[in-house]
Amino acid sequence: MAFSYREYLEKEKRIVDMAEEGLNIPRFRYVQILAVRNQIDDVFKWAYEIHDNRPSQRFNIRTYNYAPHTEKETTSCPHLCDLRIRDLREKLPKLNMDYTCMVDAETPDDGRMAGTIIIHPNRITEVEFVTKEKRAMVRDINFGTNVRRLSSTADPRSLFYRDTWRKTFPNITYTESHVLASITKSIYRFYKKGIIFEWTYFKNPSGIFYDKVDTIENYIVFWEYRSAHEKKEV
């Protein structure tokens, strides 16, 4: 399927796009505002299957509104994290009365690096990220401290290798260089489209690749893509 990036595509479509292009995405379910009861029940069935396999798993709910006529995502919608299964059952039906909801089964506390990356059509690579001992999240690059901003004019294909990252940016760690090299390689084929990707590197295998053969890609989850010309609304 051709990779599309029109901004009016809703969250679910954009995430599915990434999966179809071979990227690791979150384990998630998406329900439109005012979903019928059986759609909510399907989310709970999915969540209980995960819970039965790992009772300690927590869930997160992101909510979205779409502005009339433009179908642009609006700002300042609730984002609930670390919900137990019984909390999910309580919160989701109430939130869905007012918002489209995305439920995911990833663990914010396991995040170790998070940020954005883009390879521009002129092949300039730009990265913004944070590295934390616990709970690195993409939103940290907007509201957190110690945000790292790296820009390289090198051929992005040379950045497929961690040694190039270390040579270009001597202050980054071995792990950071490994993660950034993997991400660059994963998204390189989209550089002509000017797309910015949001990602998190977890301490454990995560996303839909959590049970695949253990490689660095199992630890990196891509959350979103959008046009690089579009300012992110948080």
Provide a quick synopsis of the model.
With 234 residues, the protein is α+β, with helices and mostly antiparallel strands. The protein is built from 6 helices and 9 strands; from the N terminus they run αβαββαβββαβααββ. The chain has helices at residues 11-20, 37-53, 85-96, 140-143, 162-168, 174-187, and strands spanning 28-31, 59-64, 79-83, 100-104, 111-119, 125-131, 148-152, 195-202, 220-227.
What does this structure look like?
- The protein contains 6 helices and 9 strands; from the N terminus they run αβαββαβββαβααββ.
- The chain has 2 domains: 28-105; 109-227, no CATH class.
- A hairpin with a 5-residue loop joins strand 5 (111-119) and strand 6.
- With 234 residues, it is an alpha+beta fold.
- It is globular.
- Strands 7-6-5-8-9 form a 5-stranded antiparallel beta sheet.
- The longest helix has 17 residues, at 37-53.
